[in-house]
Amino acid sequence: GQQLNQSPQSMFIQEGEDVSMNCTSSSIFNTWLWYKQEPGEGPVLLIALYKAGELTSNGRLTAQFGITRKDSFLNISASIPSDVGIYFCAGQNEGGSEKLVFGKGTKLTVNP
Amino acid sequence: NAGVTQTPKFQVLKTGQSMTLQCAQDMNHNSMYWYRQDPGMGLRLIYYSASEGTTDKGEVPNGYNVSRLNKREFSLRLESAAPSQTSVYFCASSYRVVQPQHFGDGTRLSIL
User: Fold this and answer.
1) Which DSSP state fits B85?
2) Mean of pLDDT over chain B
3) How many CB atoms are located within 10 Å of the residue A75 CB?
4) Which of B66, B65, B72 is nearest to B104 (CA)?
5) What's the whole-number mean pLDDT along residues B83-97?
6) Are B97 and A96 a contacting pair at CB < 8 A?
7) Are B81 and A14 a contacting pair, CB within 8 Å?
């Protein structure tokens, strides 16, 4: 089946640093989503991308839909302790089925 | 507005017992999904329901059954629980195809 390669698997950073994570796929996607999951909770949608090349911001978060439609990245600027969590990318394929394909997540730890 | 509500939040079963996980959404969404989340594996789709009256298998359907009771409710049943089904189960919903999914807070299931 389709797979998303999400990297890095984990990050340990200092408060105030910028963060970058990305997802790549062997398949073309027509939608890219980024979710954040905090301990004991379900994933919460951060950013949705629908067009190749699209660059979208949500506060300190910025995500881009790669031109090749096979990758996406998420940047977090000036990290704060509440950014801690697991960040998941998810893609939906060319066929437009309801099935999302999820990456395995990037676990972010922010040291105050 | 509760969004996606899952019950129970925690459950411990013995091998061979049966169990139904409940999910309800109040967002008038057409599509609903069940995922399981295991350490290092990300989210894997078990079953989904594109619309009321339809259900389809996802990536890991073996050992599970689902029922789309009405537009709001989608239940997941384990007929004979096995230790390999120990996991965190998430229900999600979306308005239609190519719309982002919204998740509940999960059911933590342990099978001894």
Assistant:
1) G
2) 93
3) 15
4) B72
5) 92
6) yes
7) no
pLDDT tens-digit readout, A66-94: 999 999 999 999 999 999 999 999 998 76
Query: pLDDT tens across B45-75, in order?
Result: 999 998 898 999 998 999 999 999 899 999 9
The reply to whether B41 touches chain A by the CB within 8 Å rule is yes
Q: Which two tokens stand for residue A52?
A: 């190749």
Residues of A in contact with B33 (CB under 8 A): 98
Q: What angle do CA B56, B61, B67 make, to 5 degrees?
A: 55
Question: Using CA atoms in the order B97, B101, B102, B103, what is the torsion angle rounded to 10 degrees?
Answer: 130
Contact A43 B100 (CB under 8 A): no
- C-alpha distance from A111 to closest chain B C-alpha (Å): 23
List the structure tokens of A88.
């998941």
